[in-house]
Amino acid sequence: MNEDEMVVTPWEVRGKIDYDRLIKEFGTERITPDLKQRMYKITKEKHVMLERDYFFSHRDLNWILDEYDKKNKFVLYTGRGPSGHTHIGHLPTWIFTKWMQDRFDTRLYFQMTNDEKFVFESHLNLEDVRKFTYENTLDLLALGFEPENTFIIQDIEHIDLMYEIAVQVAKKVTFSSAKAVFGFDNSMNIGGIWFPAMQAVPAFIHSWVYGKKTPCVIPCAIDQDPYWRVTRDVAERIGYYKPASIQNQFIPGLKEGGKMSASDPMSTIFTTDTIKLAKKKVMNAFTGGRATVEEQRRLGANPDICSVFKYYEFMFMPDDKDLADIGRKCRGGEILCGECKQILAPMMTEFLEKHQATREEVKDRVDEFSAARLRDELKR
Amino acid sequence: MNEDEMVVTPWEVRGKIDYDRLIKEFGTERITPDLKQRMYKITKEKHVMLERDYFFSHRDLNWILDEYDKKNKFVLYTGRGPSGHTHIGHLPTWIFTKWMQDRFDTRLYFQMTNDEKFVFESHLNLEDVRKFTYENTLDLLALGFEPENTFIIQDIEHIDLMYEIAVQVAKKVTFSSAKAVFGFDNSMNIGGIWFPAMQAVPAFIHSWVYGKKTPCVIPCAIDQDPYWRVTRDVAERIGYYKPASIQNQFIPGLKEGGKMSASDPMSTIFTTDTIKLAKKKVMNAFTGGRATVEEQRRLGANPDICSVFKYYEFMFMPDDKDLADIGRKCRGGEILCGECKQILAPMMTEFLEKHQATREEVKDRVDEFSAARLRDELKR
Predict the structure, then answer these.
(1) What is the ipTM of this complex?
(2) Which of A164, A170, A189 shows the shortest C-beta gap to B190?
(3) Is the distance from CB of B218 to CB of B232 less than 8 angstroms?
(4) Which of A18, A111, A199, A273, by CA, is between 20 and 30 Å from A244?
(5) Residue B323 vs residue A185, higher pLDDT
């Protein structure tokens, strides 16, 4: 197998990512300038992650806006598989989700798939996935979500709110189809085979709880698209709308190739890393630089493949002028990679210091966000 | 395929049943006279279903009695898939279970697998399986169970008490193994593939709720054995005892071959049938009789293949003398099948009338038996 070959599944992302090819293969649509304008008419402001095509692909967003115009407001749904500490690469999707939540004034269902991580990861026990559910929740809340419109679903703890929907989904998905979509083979355990039904549930839970068919938009990285294909395939057959989605690129790891991944700790900055370690990881990051100073001065470097530049692009340099400036200096050989990292490092550590402080502050607020509140809604 | 060929799976029983072969193929043990005596030392009375080998096979019952002697008492677990009304053929297992519950003074967990029937039966919706769960519960309670020691688990409604155990089971069962045991193919839906994990749960739920490893005995028809093979295979790996089982024969249908089955209404007496219809079904039953009266008088009939005789044997003629008497008359040609049915019919209708009256009386007591009470135990 060519090591550059693109592999994008919910469990593995590697090789050189060709986003145009992903759109074609997955059958999604590119987010056009017109669609952005349509969103901005409601949001009243642009978002850098849309402007710079971090969110680049979607399903049915035009329909979502049609319904919104008709006062049929959507809910948002995203989530996290709590298999370890949150890393920086997880945050942009959540940050953008919060922007949508604020700007469209809508509810968010956030799924913590502790059952998934338990059944898929042989090294994790129930205590582990519970611990990481809690830890990851702190990172989510540190981004400033408010409980009124934010419902965190923990699969194992809130299964009573999910199972009836999940069996309806599961009844419509054959092993053949799960195999084709996810590449399951016969060695997959029956919990893993079941799980796609659980990942579908939050797309329907609002409609189910309130007894009113409600559109749903899922902001997520595009590697999760197989789940939404299954969910969409089933939706109308069990009486719900197909969920729409808005899909982002991967944040590259700090080493060459693939997305940032928890499986290689040095490629990843965890939100729980010490400032010292985070700085070290930035300083060791993979860039688009040249082999020698002389060469870089003469030929310039390549920001398009540089992990440092991606952080400027999607998180730390919202100002287009700043970004263009550093891009120009990079390409022109005016700045060396070491110097450039010296610019990112304090941005990263400042972000982390603030995030870690907020993370502490939200510790006593976790319960306020629980989807357990839906039980009270059901009793009404 | 030879139509006499024996097929015994949890979903299908047909052909001529060879119980010795089942014991060999499933790897269970025959219930020996010694084992019966060991049970009777505790129960202080014999049971006709043991004496006549209706319960004929087991796994680990000697170990269960060893533990019982050491004051490590077991719990009982059996259940019902609520896909339709209860028929007479379901009752003997439950009647025997009640005897064990009374005589060993132990708790029973009774599982209503409404999720199973919903995902396996394309024609059933959630409302249907809930209706039959309720209807079947009435039949169970009509047999005289008392709430103190009887906990009815409804999978969908009590999933919060089950899911954590179910994912632990599911993680240890591959699709290969489920395929080998149950004969699943790729067209099986992912809810059906998941379900064996759910059927395992009640074997462990007592240990889980009370935090104390507790032996479990499952009285059931032998066609359910594949589920217990999977359950036993996983048990010790997730910290529980392997469940023991005590297994019964099938009650034959009123037509030739196979077990009594809801799929052919005339082969089956439902507990909700009118007295008139039940009588008609008895009078039309398949027997071991001869083609003509003359032949039967001369050669006698064969009670061993007669569905009427099976009802005497396992339900309506507990007195050995009565049973021997009618067997002798049958074999000797002294009694014709029509006459014999005239003896069974009033026994059956009397039983049904009483059962139906009790069924009405228990209607307002259903909630008393709910496994929801385990939630309070967990809070302690």
Answers:
(1) 0.94
(2) A170
(3) no
(4) A18
(5) B323
